[in-house]
Amino acid sequence: MPLARLSTLAVAPLALALTACASMPETPDRGRAAVGDFGEATLVNAAGVNIGRAVLTQGPTGLLIRVEAEGLTPGWHGVHIHATGQCAAPFTSAGSHINHGEPKAPHGLLNAEGPDDGDLPNIHADAHGRVRAEIFTTRARLASEGPGQWLWDADGSALVIHANADDHRSQPIGGAGDRIACGVMAAG
Predict the structure, then answer these.
(1) Structure pTM?
(2) To the nearest 10°, the Cα dihedral for 94, 100, 103, 106?
């Protein structure tokens, strides 16, 4: 058989298979979320003063959180997603971290048994107390389906900034200290 004839025969079934796949309806991938849902949290300090905001954007495998704030003590600060959408100072009204899985995971991104679903990397305030950061987590979502805990449940959720850095190991909050800023997450 001539070489040109063989390559045409070999390619024809592949072309037919690709055409068939292109015409089939897509099925949702349960490990991915619908992209584009977004929300916001106005960050307030203990005096109730607006110090910044967090913008949340749903990606296919997790949630991107952009934090812009000022008026913080320079240095590293723990930041976590809390289970209740309330921010009455001293912000204990925000409850504990989102951690809906069973059994509950202990706190800490570096904990061999963790992390819990509300754990996030630390943020850094510059010498002027300003934060400009983006954080990504696969443990939370805005979309109705996909990976992570759903933040738009009946009592909402809050983003809390702490006075100190989170060591990502010790219990219950990694030594992050007082809750110094809070923002109720709301659909955008």
Answers:
(1) 0.80
(2) -40
